[in-house]
């Protein structure tokens, strides 16, 4: 009997013993958990750093501003006789004007002309961070508001009501008074379209969130992206200038062809 008890105890000890790889498995699980938690924390921190400009970014933006913009806008962006004050225009305005090449202006005229961008994306963000630090103003929109994932049908209706009288229903642009014009929108990024809506550059009115909500602005961008990606199913667009251009085409080429054909038939019959 004593020997049987000893054998049973030995079996019990063997049954309760952990596998040699159990320790390795526990360490691996711990490392995976720790790494995942660190990655999530790092992503959150990076996101916060992107949203909130650091003092270093603001300082770099100030140096760039005073070297490139102070002649017109003043050393502290207070404005001069050559350019308006930028205090309170916000980061969105700077990102739009510099990011589309409109600023620095090449020459005086009815409105700033779009041209190749003069600065890198990092420098543009530094400009924007500095101006935004001077006073509250419209911020650069969040990525989810300019991704083109909204309601294109609602965006088309809003665009026709608020924008088509200047930019054309297809976003092809149009002429205004005194040499000014509404630019074409088919090749403009969603970020710059949103920034234009909230800042009102040139002769464009500003649409704050009470006029057009951020979701509706997203829908407008979605509609313009749809127009850009889905060209006219009817064939040649004639510049998307609407019924005037289409009617003129019919009068000149359609009726002209009929008249020429009539003359040719008459000449043959004689």
Describe the structure.
This protein has helices at 2-16, 22-51, 55-68, 70-73, 90-99, 121-134, 152-162, 164-167, 190-199, 214-229, 243-269, and strands at 174-175, 181-182. Among the domains are: 54-140, Cytochrome Bc1 Complex, Chain D, domain 2; 142-230, Cytochrome Bc1 Complex, Chain D, domain 2, CATH 1.10.760. A hairpin with a 5-residue loop joins strand 1 (174-175) and strand 2 (181-182). Strands 1-2 form a two-stranded antiparallel sheet. The protein has eleven helices and two strands, in the order H-H-H-H-H-H-H-H-E-E-H-H-H. The protein is elongated. It is an all-alpha fold and 270 residues long. The cytochrome bc1 complex is composed of a cytochrome b (QcrB), the Rieske iron-sulfur protein (QcrA) and a diheme cytochrome c (QcrC) subunit. InterPro entries: bc1_cytC-su, Cyt_c-like_dom, Cyt_c-like_dom_sf, Cytochrome_c_Oxidase_Subunit. It is a multi-pass membrane protein.
Computed Rg = 32 Å
Poorly predicted tracts of residues: 37-52
Strand content: under 5%
The CATH H-level superfamily of the domain at 142-230 is Cytochrome c-like domain
**What class would the helix/strand composition place it in?**
mainly alpha
> How many beta strands in the DSSP annotation?
2
Strand order of the largest sheet: 1-2
For this structure, the CATH topology of the domain at 142-230 is Cytochrome Bc1 Complex, Chain D, domain 2
Main sheet overview: 2 strands, antiparallel
